[in-house]
Amino acid sequence: MSDTRVYTLDAATALALEQRLRRDLPPDADWRRVDHARFAVKADGVNLVCYRSGKLVVQGKVLDRFVRDHLAGLAEATAAAAAAGDQALPFDAPTIGSDEAGKGDYFGPLVVAAVYAEPARADELRAMGIADSKTLADQRMFPMAELVERGFDCAVRALPPTEYNARWAADPNVNHVLADLHAEAIGALLQRHPDATVLVDRFASEDVLASRLRRGRCVPQRLVQVPRAEAHPVVGAASVVARVHFLEGFKHCEEDSGTELHKGAGEPVDAAARRAFAIGGRDLLARIAKLHFKNSQRLPGLRP
Prior knowledge:
Radius of gyration: 19 Å
CATH topology of the largest domain: Nucleotidyltransferase, domain 5
Number of helices: 11
CATH class of the largest domain: Alpha Beta
Shape: globular
């Protein structure tokens, strides 16, 4: 018997989801037209239809894995946005925006980027086409990121898989690892812009990041952590810069592996992991992958 799950999405969330699925689903995914639907796709035994009304219907015999790999956090994010009234974030003060890339990707680094901008430059960011990186095609972001890094004060912190795996071994909580990177990038910019408001897409309880900023003695005058902060142009710029640095790190991992890798954590990633493991065993995987992901557990012969 098929299971069915229903979500309610706003237009921006629906667009972001479609872009992410087109990027992460396997090449043989069946994209098709459905009356009154924004998009519809069948992949990995799951049938997904997103209607223009905002209703997202997901059906399949086993949905847990698909939801985990492709829809994780969707219900919480949309509920939080609805509770907050989905109001636009003001850009009325000098702001440091921070965002990450690679958190949900088995292969490649974890990257955090922070960008500083003043309100007078909001139109400049919008003119570049800056938006949440999940809504943009990868190749489109490379020139955007170059413009941001050349024209704005930025700080980037990246953990290649080898370093990521070492940090995870010391503290097996991805939000702690992520908060450390956010604090490092934000702290670097706060040293130059101590009066800036800090705006971050909330990824954990607020004290997780705040405590790390206090520990580094880089406490902002105002720290704002909200869902969907990428809608703000400065956080959007940070998300684009982080995504491009992730893509560059992912490419290095692919070159190191000697085989084609895949983004995300779905079935194509499992197949790439099997190929990489056959080429170089655990040593190679430790250089190109985040070993604590369940993709590793599905590899026959991989030592825990």
